[in-house]
Amino acid sequence: VQLQASGGGLVQTGGSLRLSCAASGRTLSINTMGWFRQAPGTEREFVAAISWGSSSPDYVDFADSVKGRFTISRDNAKNTVYLQMNSLKPEDTAVYYCAGRSGRYTYATTRYYKYWGQGTLVTVSS
Hints:
This protein is mostly beta strands. The chain has strands at about 1-5, 10, 15-25, 30-40, 45-55, 55-60, 70-75, 80-85, 95-100, 115, 120-125. The strands form 2 sheets. Strands 2, 4, 5, 6, 9, 10 and 11 form a 7-stranded mixed beta sheet that branches. Strand 4 and strand 5 form a beta hairpin.
């Protein structure tokens, strides 16, 4: 499985960005996709995740720091997961990584995710 993240850029405080993560390869093996971010000098931290199954609704989870501002969604036909980021703050500045795993659980810990994208930089200016 290969993951390709895109959509990062420079935005002012209060602005919005939409990140995309396109999956290719053996995508049927993935049931959960997550977004993590890493600012300089910090550890990679959980942002959001979405989990799905063939006969149940999608489940989403968010870090407290982004609840109410970020949403996560997916387009099954495009094998793509989106992270819509609104009301951005300078503290949201980081490299954002998408990640994938098998199994329907939205872990907030990096070690549970097997597949990783290359990261896309989001910079929020004050």
